[in-house]
Description:
2 copies of one chain form a homodimer.
Chain A: H1 24-32, H2 34-44, E1 48-49, H3 50-57, H4 62-74, E2 78-83, E3 89-94, H5 96-128
Antiparallel strand pairs in A: 1-3, 2-3
The structure holds a DNA duplex (20 and 20 nucleotides).
Amino acid sequence: MVTITDIASPEDSSVDPFRAGCEPRVLLHTVGDKWVTLVVNMLGDGDARFSELQRSVGGVSRKMLAQTLRTLERDGLVVRTVYTNTPPRVVYSLTPLGRTLLVPLRAVRAWCEQYVDAVSDAQAEFDGRGDVQPAVSGSMPTPAR
Amino acid sequence: MVTITDIASPEDSSVDPFRAGCEPRVLLHTVGDKWVTLVVNMLGDGDARFSELQRSVGGVSRKMLAQTLRTLERDGLVVRTVYTNTPPRVVYSLTPLGRTLLVPLRAVRAWCEQYVDAVSDAQAEFDGRGDVQPAVSGSMPTPAR
DNA sequence: CCGTATCCGCGAGGATACTG
DNA sequence: CAGTATCCTCGCGGATACGG
Lengths: 145, 145
């Protein structure tokens, strides 16, 4: 199986938006993933079992949750502890590395919570009127940036 | 046209991973989007024209870039300034709100750059061996968390 | 140069059923 | 309980062509 973390650079490695040879862009994609952000945030509040995560995250299928957790485990962000009694118990928890990720991820989360209203307002205004833009009449032929 | 920012809560609003009534999850999804993060980061380094963005981001189609910029504009994170001369010029820049987003987004970016090697190593180790997990033999029937 | 419109392939991801 | 396997759909996103 091949996951998103395996894909290589677009094709042109000379122009790189994220100044790097080994593609943090790819990592960014993983980290920015919908379920990844939610799961890591949940685990940040304490270890949890599979079914606990499924309930607390809300709206995630078993398939996607398992897939997400596998990726996180593979990336060294989450550890999976199995208790082999019946009924079986599996507990997921963040690794030290995973906990470092929690910091910036919570910053993003905080931003969302803080500005969700502002964004909502902006959307309403944008959608409200056809938004007749003034359109600056051109001067400046084509300056050097 | 309906974008991702329009979709509502999963269905069960009682259990909410992101403690909110007005769904910052949805915003999170937008903010975590692949192209959004890249574009905002680029604009953080200075205003840019459409074609400049397309080149600097790398690997993005005109369609996706336009779509991304439209979303960002609608969300009040980016402003679009049109100069109506020939050849036409369109300059995109972050709004003050957009600049606030830049802070947490750059934190995530910094994390990716800092730990890309650690993650890469974890992946290698994970993939290397079939990873025969010890599996903790069960005690503790089912404690209260 | 800066987009939008149209077509379309492909893979993400839900539903369901089955194992340990 | 904690997944895996299989099917199937649906919309993301690339390619292409056209308009302002």
